[in-house]
């Protein structure tokens, strides 16, 4: 690496020193290194506070000062007068020395605060409450589901569990809808084993002992309380629905003896070792003109920084911001269910990859570690890097006496994050012409809905019946990435280059053709921050241009386009989501173009999940129609723009999603394609191929 990786994750020794420093300086908080619940004060997360781009650029490109100061971003579980909060601080400079300090981390949040109230004070106590609630209705669950909870053995394959869906209320606290699931904690298939009993819990109090169970819901009928539910069960006309029973249908493997399956399939090999270069100390990669650094974060996984191609700047940063799944349905669970997966940790849930399956056996594997609650968690082989030759060519041509064919070999940086029921395979693909692709594929278990058997159900309104007592549940996956484009430098403009029909008179057409119906290009500059959707009929090119020009006088640019996968990448179908509030407004369009600011490094924060209606980062305050014109005397904007874009899927699971969703049917990508960036196709210098020539020709 030509420079140090200034975005590298905090090391174990650095995290330990930060923890000790906080305990020394914040002695008045009575911090404990053995927390039992959110009612204790403790350091929850220690990670790198990524340097401001302004500081990093001076180090990377200007041959100026030394590397920017290294700081840690810290989240402390801290009890204030009205309960526990998660509070962000910045600690540095590192390594800890006499000049180090602890400061509130506020400048990266547009909410004006660095804290969020934590509604989950004691998860163990919530589980105890849930168990007690379920035990009180053991007679009902035994009657309707043929099972009860097992407090002594939560792994009991025949036992029930109950899980909540929370909703914030204006007066503070939560209202929870609890749904029963089987078969206990020991099964990975819980999310396709929902049972049709739901209970509403008033959880507005910060004291769990004050929580109360109110309404119950079963088979499309709402009961005012447990007694009313139990009484209805005794009525002769009580309508039952079959329970959702586990069985071989949930198994992810079928070890049956099937013809030809024992014959190994073809595999890819790398006979002479890698052609890319990997500096493991700095996590720096170079390959056929591409150069970049990579780093990890426990909330958002792998990001790439300082991407260059043939010595020219292309992107300062490319990385995940948030992964949202939003459901719809006519039961109390699916009706308001949503997840913001950075809260659960897309990086810390990036587990060890399986060589030969997740990635080719010849790939290079990189470890990952994160620091939480005074422990450093080491995840081996969680990122892979490899070259891959596609089964289709990069280019070919058959001439009169020859044929030329060029292999399509590209570089892949891949990681897999398993957050609950879903496995997201996320990769950055780099092609020999300078194209960069961000691609996501999903697999794992769907989050299914219980299939009710009453006559009031509207068939297929929210999904399909996919087993005896299981229905699919429609949902949107919208996964947000940041692309801080620096096309041949940081001063860029964005245009919409439209293909438009027209009618025009040409002199050379006369007199036979008075007018000709044809088409032409019309350029529309994007002069203010905006959310943009993919155009109808792919009728516009979204291009980020530099002021630099190639040999032919054309502006150097990169085109942004929906890439390979299942159709165009989506945005959220639901308008003004009741559940999400202002926590994920970036999901409302396919992509956004904004001014880049040091005070707006991300589109979301993991703790938005705790405060959806008053989030730490409100994207609408970032995308607020500021001018993208630069060079004028009345603006400080210097032309450094940033793109936020979405990949994902409108997922309507069907019977083929049982047991697991298939990756080839749930993939999507966005590509950044050179547009007049070079003088000719740069891949000609890198590809391997063949030319077949007829003798004597």
Q: Helical percent range?
A: under 10%
Q: What oligomeric arrangement do these chains adopt?
A: single chain
Biggest beta sheet summary: 15 strands, antiparallel
Distance between termini? Answer: 48 Å
Structural class: mainly beta
Radius of gyration using CA atoms only: 28 Å
Indicate the mean pLDDT. 93
* Percentage of residues in strands: 35-45%
Q: What's the total number of strands?
A: 36
Can you identify the CATH class of the largest domain?
Mainly Beta
CATH fold type of the largest domain: Beta-galactosidase, Chain A, domain 5
Low-confidence stretches: none
CATH architecture of the largest domain: Distorted Sandwich
Kindly give the count of domains: 3
Count of discrete alpha- or pi-helical segments spanning 4 or more residues: 6
Can you say what the CATH homologous superfamily of the largest domain is?
Answer: Copper amine oxidase, catalytic domain
Q: Per the principal axes of the C-alpha atoms, what is the gross shape? A: globular
Structure write-up:
- It is a single chain.
- The chain has 697 residues and is mainly beta.
- The strands form 5 sheets. The protein has a 15-stranded antiparallel beta sheet that branches. Strands 11, 12, 13, 14, 15, 16, 27, 30, 33 and 34 form a 10-stranded antiparallel beta sheet that branches.
- The two termini are 48 Å apart.
- The active site is at 341 (proton acceptor), 422 (schiff-base intermediate with substrate).
- Residues 677-697 are annotated as: Disordered.
- One of its GO terms (molecular function) is primary methylamine oxidase activity.
């Amino acid at each position: 690496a030509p420079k140090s990786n200034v975005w590298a994750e905090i090391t174990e020794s650095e995290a330990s020193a930060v923890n000790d420093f906080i305990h020394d300086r914040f002695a008045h908080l009575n911090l404990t290194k053995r927390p039992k619940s959110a009612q204790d004060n403790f350091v929850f997360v220690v990670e790198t506070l990524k340097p401001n781009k302004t500081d990093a650029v001076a180090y990377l490109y200007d041959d100026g000062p030394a590397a920017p100061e290294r700081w840690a971003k810290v989240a402390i579980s801290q009890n204030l007068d009205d309960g526990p909060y998660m509070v962000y601080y910045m600690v540095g400079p590192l390594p800890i020395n006499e000049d180090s300090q602890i400061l509130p981390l506020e400048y990266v949040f547009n909410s004006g605060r660095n804290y969020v109230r934590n509604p989950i004070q004691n998860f163990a106590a919530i589980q105890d409450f849930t168990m007690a609630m379920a035990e009180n209705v053991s007679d009902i669950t035994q009657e309707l589901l043929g099972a009860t909870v097992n407090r002594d053995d939560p792994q009991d394959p025949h036992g029930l569990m109950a899980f909540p869906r929370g909703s914030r209320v204006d007066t503070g606290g939560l209202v929870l809808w609890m749904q029963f699931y089987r078969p206990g904690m020991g099964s990975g298939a819980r999310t396709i084993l929902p049972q049709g009993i739901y209970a509403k819990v008033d959880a507005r109090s910060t004291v769990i002992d004050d929580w109360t169970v109110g309404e119950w819901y079963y088979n499309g009928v709402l009961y005012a309380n447990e007694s009313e539910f139990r009484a209805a069960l005794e009525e002769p006309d009580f309508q039952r629905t079959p329970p959702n029973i586990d069985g071989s249908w949930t198994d992810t493997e079928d070890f049956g003896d099937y013809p030809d399956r024992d014959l190994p399939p073809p595999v890819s090999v790398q006979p002479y070792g890698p052609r890319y270069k990997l500096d493991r100390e700095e996590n720096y990669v170079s390959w056929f003109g591409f150069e970049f650094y990579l780093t990890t974060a426990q909330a958002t996984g792998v990001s790439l920084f300082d991407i260059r191609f043939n010595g020219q700047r292309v992107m300062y940063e490319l990385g995940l911001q948030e992964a949202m799944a939003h459901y719809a349905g006519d039961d109390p669970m699916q009706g308001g269910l949503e997840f913001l997966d950075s809260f659960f940790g897309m990086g810390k849930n990036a587990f060890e990859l399986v060589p030969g399956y997740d990635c080719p056996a010849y790939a290079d594997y990189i470890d990952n570690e994160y620091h939480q609650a005074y422990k450093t968690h080491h995840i081996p082989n969680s990122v892979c890097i490899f070259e891959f030759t596609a089964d289709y060519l990069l280019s070919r041509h058959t001439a009169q006496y020859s044929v030329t064919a060029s292999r399509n070999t590209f570089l892949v940086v891949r990681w897999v994050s398993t957050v609950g029921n879903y496995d997201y395979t996320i990769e950055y693909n780099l092609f020999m012409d300078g194209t960069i692709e961000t691609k996501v594929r999903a697999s794992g278990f769907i989050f299914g809905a219980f299939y009710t058997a009453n006559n009031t159900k509207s068939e297929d309104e929210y999904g399909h019946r996919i087993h005896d007592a299981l229905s699919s549940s429609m949902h949107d996956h919208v996964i947000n990435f940041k692309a801080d484009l620096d096309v041949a430098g940081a001063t860029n403009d964005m245009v919409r280059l439209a293909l438009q029909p027209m009618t025009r008179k040409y002199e050379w057409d006369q007199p036979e053709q008075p007018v000709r119906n044809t088409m032409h290009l019309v350029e529309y500059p994007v002069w203010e921050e905006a959310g943009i959707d993919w155009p109808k009929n792919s009728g516009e090119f979204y291009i980020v241009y530099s002021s630099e020009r190639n040999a032919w006088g054309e502006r150097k640019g990169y085109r942004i386009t929906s890439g390979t996968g299942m159709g165009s990448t989506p945005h959220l179908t639901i308008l003004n989501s009741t559940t999400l509030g202002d926590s994920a407004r970036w999901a409302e369009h396919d992509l956004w173009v904004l001014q880049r600011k040091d005070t707006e490094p991300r589109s979301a924060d993991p703790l938005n999940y705790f405060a959806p209606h008053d989030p730490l980062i409100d994207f609408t305050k970032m995308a607020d129609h500021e001018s993208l014109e630069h060079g004028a005397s009345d603006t400080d904007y210097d032309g450094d723009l940033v793109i936020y874009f979405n990949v994902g899927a409108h997922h309507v699971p069907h019977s083929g999603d049982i047991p697991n969703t298939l990756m080839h049917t749930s993939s999507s990508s966005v590509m950044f394609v050179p547009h007049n960036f070079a003088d000719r196709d740069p891949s000609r210098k890198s590809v391997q191929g063949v030319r077949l020539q007829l003798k004597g020709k």
